[in-house]
Each structure stands twice: as structure tokens, then as C-alpha cells.
Design brief:
Number of helices: 13
Distance between the termini: 28 Å
Shape: globular
Number of strands: 0
Low-confidence stretches: 300-305
Order of helices and strands: HHHHHHHHHHHHH
Mean pLDDT: 85
Largest sheet: none
Structural class: mainly alpha
Helix content: over 70%
Length: 305
Amino acid sequence: MSKFSASDAAFSGFRLVRENLKTVGIWAGAMTVLSIVSNVLAILFFGPQLEAFISYTSENNTPDLSEMARLMSDLAPLALWSLPYSLLLNGVIFATLNRVVLRHDDSRFAYLRIGAAELRQAAVWLLLCLVLIGVMFLGSAVGGFLGALGGPTGAFLALLCIVGSMCGMVWLAVRLSFASSVTFDEGKVTLFRAMPKTEGLFWPLLGAYLLAGVMSVIVVLLIWTIVSAIGLIASGDFAATGKMMRADTSSLQAYFTPAGIVQALFSGLIQVLTTLIVFGPAPSIYRELKERESGVAAESSSSGW
């Protein structure tokens, strides 16, 4: 029997938003400023290359691999700069998320910090990504080897291997979903040692995470529908409102258009909301299970014979 309600857990992100409206507003503002600054820096140094890559991938359903490699090589310096930035940003985001769920009274600076807890979160998410990528790479390599054998048998085994690796990634992602919360709670980087916390909970956890993902997509579509409707009413140009979905990054002049500004202003809010909705269930479930275990332990210790 499940130790928690998957449907209730899936909506825990919405409860976090409702209970922390002012804090969420601060986070959205900070994320918006950070997004604009990072975009401006990227445009200043790699604007044409970035726009060429985005345009090519969005306009071609079956892109040429050699052309993709050429465009990506032009963006290699940007990727090298973005990696540590993304790691640190993820560390701050998930430390903040765990702090608001697990240590709600520690609300100084809207739960935002930059310290050891954030570095540990960055480390655990880097390890988790490496593990998942490693599983996918191993499955692809073995699948490629089996596919090279030729014939329908080889093709079937290759497909089976790739599907198996994808299933393995999903299984690991769910079983390791408490790693961030355990790392924050115990104050040390924890990955595989967090797996016992999810023992016997794979299916309810998967259901909660999938439902939360669907809810986040609905929220994003709803926000952009409202924004596009406002833009259409204000400008009367449906094509212009469509550009709000993706700002022009070829130059600063092209970026700071009304459509680009609207996209930048709402991107911070969307990032915060999707993070809370998608990733909020994991620490919420962890807290609930931990409180129940503590309650059971307290009852056992207080009982007599």
C-alpha cells in the first residue's frame, strides 16, 4: 500500500505557490533579472551564432548532422561558460526549494543563499545527470553494436537495448528523486544512499511526477495563451504575438523589442512556477514520509512492553 497519496503529492507545488506568494514573486523577479543579464551577455558575444543555431533547429524537422555539428562548434565557448553557471544556478534553485519545504522557518532573504548547501546541491545534480547520461550512453553503445550485426534480429535487439536504457533512466530518476532532499537534510552529498528512501514507492512516485509534469505544461500553455491574447488585443498583429514565444537573439536591438521584453519578463515567472510544480513533490513527499517515520518511532519508544 502506498504511504502517500500520489494525486495529493502531485499538487504540492501549487500549494507551495499559494502559501508563499510573496516569496514566489521575489524569486520570479530575481530569475527574470538573472535571465535578462545572461541573455544579454550571450547575445553580446555569441548573438549571431546563437540565433543561427536556434533558427536551424526550429525550422528543420530532420536537421543535417554535419550542419548541426558545425553550428554547435561555434557555440562551444558559450557551452563551457554556461556549464558552471547552470550548475551553480541549479544548486541555488534546489537548495532554496528544499529549504522552503524542509526548513520553512528559515525564511531569511526569501530562502535564497549561496553557500555550502548550494554547492552540495550542484554536486548531487551533476552526479545524477552523469549517471543518467551514462546509462543512456551505455544502452546506445550496446544497441549500436547489436544493430551492426545486421538483419531483423540485430535491429530488434538494438531497439530493445535502447528502450531498456530509457526505462532504466526513468527507474533511476525516480528511485534517486530524494537525493536532493536527503543531501540538503543530512548536509552531505548523497546519491545512491538515498535509494532506500524510495524502496517500494516507484509507481506512486512515478504517478505523482508524471501528473505534476502534465500540470506544469498546462500552466505554461495557460500563461502564454493569456499573454498572447493581451498582445493580440493591444497590437492587432497575431504574427507579432507569436514571436513572444521566442525572442530574437541575433542582436541586442532585436532582443529588446516589445515581444522580446514580454518574453523575458514572463520567462522568470514560468521558470519559477514550473520548478515548483515539477520538483516540489519530491521534497514534500520526503518530508511527509520522514514525519510519519518520526511519529511511528516516537510512539514505539514511548510504549511499554
